[in-house]
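=== RUN LOG ===
request id: a7f3
mode: sequence -> structure
chains: 1
length: 204
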Amino acid sequence: MKSYQYRHADPTYANAYLWPALAKLIRSRDWGDRRAFDLGCGNGATCNMLADFGFSATGVDTSESGIALAQAAFPQVRAHVGSAYDDLAAIYGRFPLVVSLEVIEHCLDPRAFAKTFLSLIEPGGVGFLSTPYHGYFKNLALAAAGRMDAHFTVLWDGGHVKFFSIDTLRQLLREAGAEEVNFLRVGRVPIFAKSMIAVVQNLQ
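=== RESULT ===
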């Protein structure tokens, strides 16, 4: 499979509506241990954002170009080539904050991804996982506007292969062992949200 090719280390357009929600979560908790893991870190921009909040940030991604850019642009973070299908907790340990932004929809095996994501969250820690939002009214609006082909395009190399609703993502995470999952919708008004965010608490 062709890996995603990054050309710069700038934030993506999605970070404009995802980062404020992540920042709000960070500010809402007392972090005695400021370590964070970014699963599918891409070009390292979110790792750098976490570092700006005082976290020691580690990230992995399958994209060699993304990791090379992250290492060059953000030497203060630890960015490595790696896969969500690896036993990353055995390699890197567990973290009080685990982040994954707009990654799971690219995975052919989202169950394996979810298990890895949850395995990285230490007891008492929190996971922050985003993916494009799909719901009845948004899908209806896409169909009415003639945007279905563009939205669900099959012509994007390395693009989206899974499309989640809140119910299906909650079921996936619970199957993987999540006990407490809460959802946020961000970007536009909630029924037409661009993305949804699963906030997972590790209660163990």
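=== NOTES ===
The mean pLDDT is 95.
Residues 35 and 57 are 6 Å apart (CA to CA).
=== END ===
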